[in-house]
């Protein structure tokens, strides 16, 4: 059933990011942070906009170089972007001129592996429930389906870590819940380490094992909360209320516990 | 004959795409009726505006004598040559400057300096350099059609979404493949727009170039007719350019629809 993950351990030590602004000044996007993520762990990152959560994700993806500190995956430093840390944006960003099959195949094709692994593409399309849509073009898909294709495009490369930057943020509430369950089922099957940026408290609570709470100006980690709610979780479980109140208090909004 | 069939197909295609049928013919019909009414009533002297029927007579005569075809064919050939040259250079340089920052840094200044100069202002030099007949005209046409193509292609490359660039890095897509599979297809709608605008510019330039020199071409025919006060012939020449230009544009548009099938376009609210 559930296989224990052996790869995908993430270690961040004093990782900070300072951008130069257009006037030659400096913007402190991320104060030095420490973060350890175990192989196969599901971690949500939550915080107000401008708290550096996307910066953190981009640093882990290798798309940005840290101004300070070290980032390691399974003990090896992150040198730049590569397929072992898959990326899914809020916008599916499918290539509009490629059909779904070829969109999903992009990574394998890029690394010259497609000829031997065409079955993989079919397999991952089936995993996200798009087996019947292989020949369809992105503009013919709904938002939820497009985001599933984007998931498959990242997963087909067997990433150690999947970085999701508000992947369900643009979907309607019902599609969103369905997608949350699908992401959980993918995670249960593949045990990929998941880093899931969201601004939705309930989504973070429903999905993750731990929630990283960030605060703004300068961006920093305010707290890390373990979510010990047994799975399968029910959306209306009473356990959620206590956690939600604590999270809201940490984020500095409204009701006190 | 095959070409004519294809053109007819392209035209039918463009009609079907709009799907408005007879409604397209209302405004031309009204204008034609108005034109006929104004001229038949003797309100306007025929030398200023001949009636539609006079123009039709002139057209039949010019088509019958082969005069129209001769001039139109000469202009058409020049447009094709100049436009082909402009398309190759415009797409090539637009792509090149969009992709290689060094090439852009070293050449963009010169290109931007030349752009505001009207193509026709090059005519004296062009005649000296390339001769008064074909060479200078093709040069002017190529120059006029080049800039819209070049500018659109460059913009098309430039608008490549930054997230696609990042995605390509994460998926380890090699540079060449990235250009071929992401940048070029993304720029295609812009390239096609550039080509269509460039073609319209080519027709403007051919007439302008032929007005000044030469013995053949629609532009020459127009000057000649004007000198002889044959206003009906002038109008036939103008309409002929419109019809041929529109037909060529339809062909390009049909081509665009075939290539850029993945894109849905806004057709009005």
SSE inventory with pairings:
The complex is a heterodimer of chains A (257) and B (269).
Chain A: E1 10-20, E2 26-37, E3 42-46, H1 53-61, E4 68-73, E5 76-77, E6 85-88, H2 100-110, H3 118-127, H4 143-155, E7 161-165, H5 173-190, E8 193-198, H6 201-207, E9 210-215, E10 220-226, H7 239-250
Parallel strand pairs in A: 3-8, 3-9, 6-7, 7-8
Antiparallel strand pairs in A: 1-2, 1-4, 4-5, 9-10
Helix pairs in contact in A: 2-4, 3-4, 6-7
Chain B: H1 2-18, H2 26-40, H3 52-65, H4 67-99, H5 101-114, H6 123-130, H7 134-158, H8 162-170, H9 175-212, H10 218-227, H11 231-259
Helix pairs in contact in B: 1-11, 3-11, 4-5, 4-7, 4-9, 4-10, 6-7, 7-9, 9-10, 9-11, 10-11
Describe this protein with a few key phrases.
heterodimer, A: 257 residues, alpha/beta, Rossmann fold, six-stranded mixed beta sheet, four-stranded antiparallel beta sheet, globular, B: 269 residues, mainly alpha, MetI-like fold, 11 helices
What is the CATH topology descriptor of the domain at 10-94 and 160-250 in chain A?
Rossmann fold
Query: From the coordinates shown, what is the CATH architecture of the domain at 10-94 and 160-250 in chain A?
Result: 3-Layer(aba) Sandwich
What characteristic shape of chain A results from the CA principal axes? globular
Q: Quaternary status of these chains?
A: heterodimer
Largest sheet data of chain A: 6 strands, mixed
User: Structural class from helices and strands of chain B?
Assistant: mainly alpha
Succession of helices and strands of chain A: EEEHEEEHHHEHEHEEH
What's the architecture of chain B in CATH terms? Answer: Orthogonal Bundle
Count of alpha/pi helices of chain A: 7
Report the uncertain regions of chain A: none
N-end to C-end Cα span of chain A = 38 Å
Distance between the termini of chain B: 39 Å
Poorly predicted parts of chain B: none
CATH class of the domain at 10-94 and 160-250 in chain A: Alpha Beta
């Amino acid at each position: 059933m559930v296989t224990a993950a052996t790869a995908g351990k993430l270690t961040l030590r004093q990782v900070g990011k300072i951008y130069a602004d257009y006037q030659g000044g400096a913007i402190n996007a991320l104060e030095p942070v420490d973060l350890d993520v175990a192989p196969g762990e599901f971690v949500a990152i939550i915080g107000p906009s401008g708290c550096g959560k996307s910066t953190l994700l981009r640093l882990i993806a290798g798309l940005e170089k840290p101004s300070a500190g070290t980032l390691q995956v399974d003990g090896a430093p992150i040198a730049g972007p590569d397929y072992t840390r898959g990326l899914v944006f809020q916008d599916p960003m499918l290539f509009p001129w490629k059909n779904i099959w070829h969109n999903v195949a992009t990574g394998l094709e890029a690394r010259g592996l497609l000829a031997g692994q065409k079955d993989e593409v079919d397999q991952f399309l089936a995993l996200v429930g798009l087996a019947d849509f292989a020949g369809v073009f992105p503009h013919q898909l709904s938002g939820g389906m497009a985001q599933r294709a984007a998931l498959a495009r990242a997963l087909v490369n067997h990433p150690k870590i999947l970085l999701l930057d508000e992947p369900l943020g643009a979907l309607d509430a019902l599609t969103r819940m369905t997608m949350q369950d699908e992401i959980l089922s993918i995670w249960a099957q593949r045990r990929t380490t998941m880093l899931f940026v969201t601004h939705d408290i309930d989504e973070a609570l429903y999905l993750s094992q731990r929630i990283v709470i960030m605060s703004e100006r300068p961006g920093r980690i305010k707290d890390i909360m373990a979510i010990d709610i047994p799975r399968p979780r029910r959306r209306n479980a009473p356990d959620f209320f206590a956690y939600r109140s604590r999270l809201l208090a940490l984020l500095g909004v409204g009701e006190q516990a | 004959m095959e070409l004519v069939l294809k053109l007819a197909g392209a035209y039918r295609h463009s009609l079907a795409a709009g799907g408005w049928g007879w409604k397209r013919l209302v405004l031309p019909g009204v204008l034609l009726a108005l034109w006929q009414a104004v001229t038949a009533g003797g309100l306007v002297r025929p030398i200023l505006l001949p009636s539609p029927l006079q123009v039709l007579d002139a057209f039949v005569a010019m088509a019958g004598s082969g005069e129209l075809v001769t001039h139109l064919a000469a202009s058409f050939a020049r447009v094709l040559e100049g436009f082909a040259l402009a398309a190759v250079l415009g797409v090539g340089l637009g792509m090149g400057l969009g992709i290689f920052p060094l090439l852009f840094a070293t050449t963009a200044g010169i290109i931007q300096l030349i752009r505001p100069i009207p193509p026709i202002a090059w005519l004296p030099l062009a005649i000296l350099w390339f001769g008064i007949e074909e060479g200078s005209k093709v040069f002017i046409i190529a120059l006029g059609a080049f800039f819209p193509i070049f500018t659109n292609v460059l913009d098309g490359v430039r608008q490549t979404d930054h997230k696609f660039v990042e995605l390509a890095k994460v998926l380890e897509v090699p540079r060449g493949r990235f250009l071929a599979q992401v940048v070029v297809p993304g720029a295609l709608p812009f390239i096609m727009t550039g080509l269509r605008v460039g073609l319209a510019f080519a027709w403007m330039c051919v007439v302008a170039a032929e007005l000044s020199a030469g013995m053949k071409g629609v532009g020459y025919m127009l000057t000649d007719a004007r000198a002889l006060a044959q206003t009906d012939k002038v109008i036939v020449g103008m309409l002929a350019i419109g019809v041929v230009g529109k037909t060529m544009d339809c062909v390009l548009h049909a081509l665009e629809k075939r290539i850029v099938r993945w894109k849905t376009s806004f057709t009005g609210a």
